Amino acid sequence: MQNNDDGFNRVTAFPEISGSVQWRSPSNIALVKYWGKRKGQIPENPSISITLKKSHTETLLGYSPAKGQSGILTGFSLDRRELPAFKERIDRYLSQIGDLYPFLKDFDLTISSTNSFPHSSGIASSASALSAIALCVTSMERMLFSSPSDDYSFFRKASYAARIGSGSAARSVYPGYVLWGSAAEIPHSANEYAVPLNDNIHAEFKDMGDAILIVDESPKPVSSSKGHSLMESNPWATVRYRQAEMHTGRLIEVLAAGDAEEFVRIVEKEAMTLHSLMMSSYPGYILLKPGTLQIIEKVRQFRLDTRVPLAFTLDAGPNVHLIYPARFRESVKNLIEQQLVVHCSKGRWIDDNTGEGPVEITESDS
Q1: Tell me, what DSSP letter sits at residue 362?
Q2: How far is C-alpha 206 from the chain's CA centre?
Q3: Domain region containing 258
Q4: pTM of the model as a whole
Q5: Measured in whole angstroms, how far is the alpha carbon of residue 94 from the centre of its chain?
Q6: Residue 265 belongs to a domain with what CATH number?
């Protein structure tokens, strides 16, 4: 029994264990969109994404024996700034996963995160941030109890935990193409965690570029959480969920067959559907900017002129992702520099590509 200066008496399960774990976890861009959820962060429809490489969050989680009756988050910073609203969200998240990781009550935690891209601007910053925290906490568990003992169980649990904080974060714990949500075409798929889809991908789609055009860096006026909740009364919700299920099955076939034209059709239809759902919600809202629309028109014309299978997609924001087989990188880069960069905030864009998933950062890497 430890008698603390603050007056609390409690059993200290880990009286001498302090340390830190650090993970770099990527963002992802959904090809089939997740929009609409049920209680428990369960998606109304399956989604498929590509995990990115350069757009990521690095999170350092420090831990030490709790000084009070129960462990608390003593500090949180994002991009070296203390943001109370973000700390409150992470506090809630740690409480939500307390049953999954009961040892957390015995530790005081500090979390320091940095993004390689603007947060809250529609590039799935919550996906990389929450997946990084989930990976850190799961690493703590493995360090304390040697469990989950194998990588398969480790990443599945991290995906499950990440989902509780941010649905799209469930997909960020895996590389390449990832499915989240139950889909008839993939027997081991589930609503509670994501699964990788990389065993049956045609060579045409194995190495993909993602040029992220930053049209507007400012935080979104409507959060994704609010957008999801508005789907409950959206008159097109039921039709949308059926469409997403159909697109999921079809995209799995397309990725295996190497059908670039059909890939472009599905990806762009998903992007436009997502924003039409925002506009048809009540209250409806528009996240697209004039620059977004001008980029879309120029991309369509470029595709007609060159036959390069360049697809645009959008997350819940105004910024445009250009998805394409990496062998066309020079053609796409020329298009951006000659015609599209003028529509980007401060001329900024991110030359990203398919990533290899999250990485644990050790002292030797620092």
Answers
A1: P
A2: 20
A3: 204-353
A4: 0.92
A5: 18
A6: 3.30.70.890
Domain annotation covers residue 110: no
- Which residues neighbour 7 within 8 Å (Cβ) at sequence distance 6 or greater? none
Q: Is 293 helix (H, G, I), strand (E, B) or coil?
A: helix
Q: What are the pLDDT tens digits along the chain (366 aa)? A: 233 443 333 445 677 789 999 999 999 999 999 999 999 999 999 999 999 999 999 999 999 999 988 899 988 887 777 777 788 999 999 999 999 999 999 999 999 999 987 665 456 688 999 999 999 999 999 999 999 999 999 999 999 999 999 999 999 999 999 999 999 999 999 999 999 999 999 999 999 999 999 999 888 888 888 999 999 999 999 999 999 999 999 999 999 999 999 999 999 999 999 999 999 999 999 999 999 999 999 999 999 999 999 999 999 999 999 999 999 999 999 999 999 999 999 999 999 999 999 999 987 565
Strands 73-78 and 107-115: parallel
14: which DSSP letter? S
Which tokens in the block code for residue 101?
Answer: 């990781």
Residue 304 lies in a domain: yes
Could you give phi then psi for residue 332, rounded to 5 degrees? -70, -40
DSSP E strands, the chain: 2-3, 9-10, 19-32, 37-38, 42-43, 47-65, 73-78, 107-115, 177-180, 194-196, 208-213, 311-314, 320-325, 349-353, 359-360
Least Cα distance to 47 among 311, 245, 309, 284 occurs for 245
Candidates 66, 65, 68; CA nearest to 6 is: 68
Given a contact cutoff of 8 angstroms between Cβ atoms, the answer to whether 317 and 123 are in contact is yes
Identity at 345, one-letter amino acid code: S
How many other CB atoms are found less than 10 A from the CB of residue 184? Answer: 10
C-alpha dihedral sign at 50, 54, 56, 60: positive
The Cα 57–Cα 176 span in angstroms is: 17
Evaluate whether residue 302 is within a structural domain.
Answer: yes
* Secondary structure of residue 307 in the 3-state scheme: coil
DSSP conformational letter for 86:
H
